[in-house]
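ugh finaly. both done.
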Amino acid sequence: MVTTIIILLVVVFVIGIIASLYNGLVRADQKAKESWSDITVQLKRRADLIPNLVETVKGYAAHESGVFEKVTEARAAVTGAGSPAAAAQADGQLTGALKSLFAVAENYPDLKANQNFLELQAQVTDTEDKISASRRFYNSAVNSFNAKRKMFPTNMVAGMLGFNTDKEFFDVSDAEKAAIEQPVEVKF
């Protein structure tokens, strides 16, 4: 009788530990998903601002069609990205394209003074800051999840509980970083 009670207590204890580990993984997974959602909201917000920005600049610099095409293509890539890695790559391209667009705008004093352009530029800049903050929060949540999944004793049961793989970080590759950091050359 005592042996049965001890065995039952050990089984309940083990089940409690596994449930606790599972709940911790679920919490970390949900935090990462929530923070990814924050990034997608900000990426969509920026993508929604871009057509207005492009149209405003087009009115002043109609002959800059190559810049407009790059911005439009990069915007489509961001809105169609299905994973953090794809979104990060597309985001790097869009940041570079926007940098080119703003460089073009620098050559048009009337455009730089246009209130609509200034408001759109401020909104895009604000959104860039929000994307950066969301990226840091997401990467922190991913780091927390990945670490939790690999740490003892969770690592012993994570695979059995359906948490087999690390989550992807939202980071720009070295090639995109170099493209973003390089000065934009605008020729007329």
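ok and the 2nd:
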Amino acid sequence: MSEPVVKIDGLVKRYKELIALDRLSLEIYDGEIFGLLGPNGSGKSTTINCLLSLLTFDKGEITVFGEKMRPDNYSVKSRIGVIMQNVAVFDELTVYENIDYFCGLYIKDKATRKQYVDEAVKFVGLEDFTKFFPKKLSGGLLRRLNIACGIAHKPKLIILDEPTVAVDPQSRNKILEGIVELNRQGATVIYTTHYMEEVEQICTRIAIMDKGKTIAVGTKEELKKQIKNTETINVEVMELDDKQLDDIRALPHTYEAFVNDGRLTVKYSGGKHNLIRLMTYLQEQEINLGRVFSERPTLNDVFLEITGKQLRDK
């Protein structure tokens, strides 16, 4: 395997008694959309800030593009684009002027910069808003402007720290589609979020973080293979007695079954015909049924089983 674009080795960051990062190690390779998944307070943003040398850390080492990352390593920093959770643009400048300013920090040739800015405007779909000031933009459009400012200079490594927080579904989809396209054009992407469905949708590899540690790393398929659950079947039931519930628990490959608010939930580990077997039993018992649906494990199931906690979307 090639040398990683980003290598974090044994990173420790403390805030007095609080250990924000606890011997964190990660390797991110060229061409990945690498997801950092975890709840607020898990260490995602701290990791990014240390990676960018915006925070000092107590122990460990970070290399980017094969070079040790330092606050004054501008040759490396010029190849990085950063889109943070908090929108960082100038209210006094128009949409176009904002993008031109941030691009101009890296691209000095005027003709090249104009080309790059025009391409960034088109990429995020702000052609009709170039003369608007940020305060006149909706939340979703403001997020798009923030992204344009971070990617206009065509960085090879793009870091996005929860860029879809508090945006409407249409803008969220536009942002996610844009990230995939940037990756297709050759950028390596680090994407931090607590939205499970976004990670499932776009990330090629994922690190699940909790309490400053990586507790699992892999593709979504690899992560799902690490847990016991392979299938969950939910059935709306009118009535189910204790003996019937015990019978269901005794069915092959069942490791958990319970009823809550008129819904039977049965969890399986392995097996190919779990739904047929369960339906056969319920019909034999002449149990009145409502909706029936089968679900394969999600990243939320992975997180819940590994950490014992639920990661809920906001």
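summary for the 2nd one i guess: The radius of gyration is 24 Å.
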